[in-house]
Amino acid sequence: MLMRTDPFREMDRIVQQLAGTSGTWSKPSVMPMDAYRDGDAYVIAFDLPGVNTEAIDIDVERNMLTVKAERRPAAKNDTVQMELSERPLGVFSRQVMLADTLDTEHIEADYDAGVLTLRIPIAERAKPRKISIRADAGPKQISA
């Protein structure tokens, strides 16, 4: 139901992680995700620890789902001296091409414990359905 994203973005994510660079609005970092089917819905879970819900943007245009988020540095004052900073900051983004069989009009989004979870229902037209067979009205007469 989901189409894989560009493999080169995954390479960029690995390089950014190794280089220790953070994402920007023009070149965001990729956020990790899981996608699976749960009954009559597809579920996509994005890891966004430390991101406020106000800093998350979810957009669907046609069948392209885009999730962008920004993790900002913690507010600092003059008495704070940073000793270690390993958590990545900056902009994170992920685009997922959704299949036509998903109902993008009824996506539900929840954010709990740093995980953004989207539930996308399967469209009614894509669900399996039983086709009834009409019975014949009887044998057909052939006239000579």
Radius of gyration: 24 Å
Number of helices: 1
Shape descriptor reads elongated
The assigned structural class equals mainly beta
Q: Span from first to last CA?
A: 56 Å
**What portion of residues is helical?**
under 10%
The tally of beta strands, per DSSP, is: 9
Q: What does the average pLDDT come to?
A: 82
Binned strand content: 35-45%
- Main sheet characteristics: 5 strands, mixed
Low-confidence stretches: none
> What is the chain-wise order of helices and strands?
EHEEEEEEEE
Q: How does this structure look, described?
A:
This protein is mainly beta. The protein is built from 1 helix and 9 strands, in the order βαββββββββ. Strands 1, 2, 5, 6 and 7 form a 5-stranded mixed sheet that branches. A hairpin with a 2-residue loop joins β8 and β9. The termini are far apart. The model has no long low-confidence stretch (mean pLDDT 82).
SSE blueprint:
Elements: E1 2-3, H1 7-19, E2 29-30, E3 33-38, E4 41-47, E5 56-61, E6 64-71, E7 90-98, E8 108-112, E9 115-121
Parallel strand pairs: 2-7
Antiparallel strand pairs: 1-7, 3-4, 4-9, 5-6, 6-7, 8-9
In short:
β3 and β4 form a beta hairpin. It is built from one helix and nine strands, in the order βαββββββββ. Helix content is 9%, strand content 36%.
Write out key terms for the chains shown:
144 residues; 9 strands; elongated; 4-stranded antiparallel beta sheet
